[in-house]
Predict the structure.
Amino acid sequence: MTHKDVIVVGGGIAGLTAALSLAQKGKDVLLIEKNDRCGGLMNTFERDGFRFEGGARALVNAGLVKPLITEFGLDIAVLPNPITLGIEDAMLVINGEQSLDEYARLLKELYPGSEDEVERVISAIRSVIADMRVLYGVDNPLFAKKKRNPIALAPSLLAWTLKFLRTMYRISRMDTPFEHALDALSSNQSLKDIIGQHFFRGTPVFFALSYFALYNDYIYPKGGVGAFIDTLVGAIVLKGGEVLCRREVVRVDATDKTVTDATGSTYRYDSLVWAGDLKALYTTADASRLPEKARAEFTRRKQAVLARKGAESVVSVFAAVDLPPDTFGRVASGHVFYTPDRRGLGRIHTAELTALLERWDTVSKDEFYDWLTRFCRYNTFEVSIPALRDPDAAPPGKTGIIISALFAYEVTERIRAAGWYEEFKKRVETEFIDVISDSLYPGLRDKIMFSFSASPRSIFERVGSSEGSIVGWSFENEIPAVTNMFRMADSVKTPLPDAYAAGKWVYSPAGGPTAIMTGRIAAKRCLRR
Ligand SMILES: Cc1cc2nc3c(=O)[nH]c(=O)nc-3n(C[C@H](O)[C@H](O)[C@H](O)COP(=O)(O)OP(=O)(O)OC[C@H]3O[C@@H](n4cnc5c(N)ncnc54)[C@H](O)[C@@H]3O)c2cc1C
């Protein structure tokens, strides 16, 4: 039986970060991934010469990705990834914090009579950005360009440390749902929708408002997000680690400290990092021979994890277009958050959707499609054009485009059970392309060479992510993971001996950056052992 210092299950960004950190330190590490390629929710694929991101459209640096590239000497070029915020015909390319003033002006023009409310929202965003500067150490005197002697530095460092602790405390208290926070700032529903309807329901207010700063922080690896992943895999192997794809781990024996894959091969570990779906850990792990106290804790955690659900998922439409990238570049940058109608979704994606699901058995297809048309018309879309960041992403003179919006997993499941899932996927394609063709890129629909879509169900099937979630737990119920920044180091603990967990399920709010952070923390725990 193969015996490894550390086995990492799951080759998403969390698992890869953990495996690379361990291999770098000379650990004998094996990463096991169920798909034919690593990356999970960060992947790039090619169709007839067009390159598309199947998951995250770009990377959020967050003070992590670029340092990772430097620390591990990764051979990957990073390209700029400017973000455009678009509402109807108005386009704003985000360029530093000063864009916030332009954003305020834009909102005031769109919502006359609500100028004071816009000011209130913008000043809330500004104060969150100030907190982030403290959080990421931008203001830290230690990082000042001009070096000063340590004794002269001491008073300002002490003042900064106190400011840092105060900020951390303030942030940890800004965990109310952003919808409630916006209600306190404005009564204009359309304004609130435009600011927040592309966030997951119940997103903590700090996380939602901090997004304006993150818009400046996106980067695009040359060759696509998947090229970054491939570079990580290459680095793991180069440092002596092993990466085994097409092997799904189906059993963890917590007492013998072994994992078994679907082909029946068993591997023994000293330490385990589980970076796959968390529900899967608790359903595949056998804790029956652990001491009673550990067994009871495992059962308690298992019940909490299995009782909760993931956040909303996403529907993506991929299209190859017979137009050169310039045509799109004249409208906006290659990564756009676009809302075709300033009125916003209102209750369409909340109360109306809930009502639809409650009486699903009586809802006709026509009624559902009518809802879907309105859902698309007033929604906010993330539009990504890889060739506008990296010209090699499409054949000459042609362009690939990805149009996506948040979508409830449960709806796709009900449709699947009713037997019209494929028809629904085609209909979504048409709706998304129509709405973008009638607004952002006029005439798009006539130039489509081919298109296809991916639903929340596709995400569940490929990555095994519960409820097709892309960022871990739903914010609408109690979260069975660490949610306090002060306690992030505890997020990787599991009730199983020498087993840690990493990735989007262990810390909330999650995404690429926290997946990387928890991967590193889990690696550190293994090293300490
Ligand atoms: C369309 C889209 C847009 C996004 N945009 C952003 C964004 O702008 N900013 C941001 O921060 N985040 C974004 N994200 C989310 C981000 O991509 C994910 O949260 C992050 O990549 C999760 O990484 P992970 O390693 O935790 O999990 P995953 O990427 O889910 O990786 C888990 C891996 O484990 C493997 N696996 C699962 N079970 C097993 C098993 N039993 N055996 C072996 N292998 C297994 C899976 O195949 C997968 O490769 C986006 C995601 C999507 C889909």
